[in-house]
Each structure stands twice: as structure tokens, then as C-alpha cells.
Amino acid sequence: MKNKLSFFIALIVVIMLGAYAICFQVRYDQVAVKTTFGNADTDSIITDAGIHFKIPWPFQKVTAYSTRIQLFQDQDEEQQTADGKSVIIRTYVAWSIEDPLKFFNQVETVGNAKDKMEPLLRTTRGIISQYSFEQLVNTDSSKIKLSEIEEKATAQLQSRVSDSGYGINVEKVGIRRIVLPEKTTESVFETMKKTRERMAANARQEGKAKAAAIQSDAETAAKRMKAIAERRAQEIRAKGDAEAAKFYASFANEKEDFAIFLFKNEALKEMLKNNSTFVLPAEDLGLFESVGKVNLPDTK
Fold first, then answer.
1. pLDDT at 16 (0 to 100)
2. Which of 23, 29, 97, 244 is most enclosed, with most CB atoms within 10 A?
């Protein structure tokens, strides 16, 4: 009984090893290359998911690749901008296997793909030297050209990868981060300081111009209102003088002294309106006694 159990277990192990040797699985997100004595052709590409068969090694071998988009990041590297500034750039590449046969023959592994694309990416990053620092870093988003740089870098790297026959499709070349070296940081801060000072000076100048315009408008309005008031006052004064003139003749007959006083009072208004000092002769003081107490006009 014991020998039968051992034989049964051994048979199962042999069957499993045999199945492993002649069967392989391709997942839904994979593509496989089945080689015969290390060689592959178009018939070697397997894209259907499921269980497949092969001749045991060393006759045939299967290499599976992921069809998903893969990502690798490059190292930080200092780049010069068009205006002579230095920036430290870290880029990344999103890529996928477009032609499994070419990829197997030219690249073979994912690690080799990274090694082959790194020098091409380093050359592609030279596009940054065509742009100024303000087009990379700016508070005004409309001046930033990062999207344009990434599009150009993607097209250029794809062209170089295609020419190399790697069977790789470059989905995107992107800028992961931008770091400013210490010298560049100092220069940027100084530029920002000067820019803010210039903006402040422009704002002050604009404020002064607006204040002068407001003051000029106010003075013009005040002069216009004063002229209207003076003209109205003259009209009222003229009307009052015309009304008073009607009674001067009767005053001259009935109370001559009072009529003379009124004429002198008007004369005093004209003579004293500029804060002048006027001395009356002593005989004229009797006039005030004869006509009673009369208040002199306010000449201030």
C-alpha cells in the first residue's frame, strides 16, 4: 500500500513537471515570443491569452513581455537655457512594446530597453536649450512652454527609437521636476526683486497721474461753481440795488442825511473790501449820531 502511494505521488510530480516543460500561459496583458534554438520569426509571436504548448527546453523557449505602458525616470542633469541660466532637470519616459519581434531581436529585455533609451533621452533633452528660463519657470502660466517642450521631446525620441528598430513606442517624454542651482536661485531672486520694484514704481507713477487728474478736475469744478455763485450773487446784488434805487429819490427829499449815509455806506463797502484801513474825518462822525446807530458792513 505504501509503495502504491509513493508511486502515485511520483507520477503526479512527473506529470506536473512534464506539463510545465511543454505548457506555458500567456496573460491578457502579455505577448509572448516562442523561439526555436534561440531564433524567432513572425510565427513565433503569440498574442492570444491562455494555455499554449511548446517543445521542452533546450529546443524551444518562451519569453513573455507586458503590453502595458512602462515608465522609467532618468537621473537629474543640469541643462543650460537659451538665456544662459542653469536648471537641473529630471525627465521620465512612458513607453510600450510596439513590435515584440523587433524588441526581442534588438533589445531582448526591459532592462536593456532602459539602457538603450537613456543616451537618446539625454540628447533629446537638449531641446530645453532652445527655450529661455522664463518659459520654464514663471508665475504667468501663459508664458510657460513645458507642454510644448514635452511634445517636441516625445516626437524626437520616438523618431530616434524608430530609426534604431527597437520595436518600442514612446508614449510620452515628460519633465518630472525642475530644480534651480544656488547661483541661478540668487539670480532669479534678484530678477524678481527688480521686477517687483519696477512694478511698484509704475504703480506709484500711475497713482500720481490719477491723483493729479482728480485734483485738476476738482479745481476746475470748484472754479466753475464759484463763477456760477459769483454770477448769481451779482444778479441778486444788482436786483437789490435796483430796488433800493427806487427809494433813493424819496429819501433825498424826506431824509437827505439818511440818503447820503446810504451812498457813503456803499462807497465804504468798495473801499474796505480788500482789508484796507480807512480814516473818517471828525465831522463825518456826526452823521452816525444824526441817523442813529447803524452797523457797518462786514468787510472781512
1. 66
2. 97
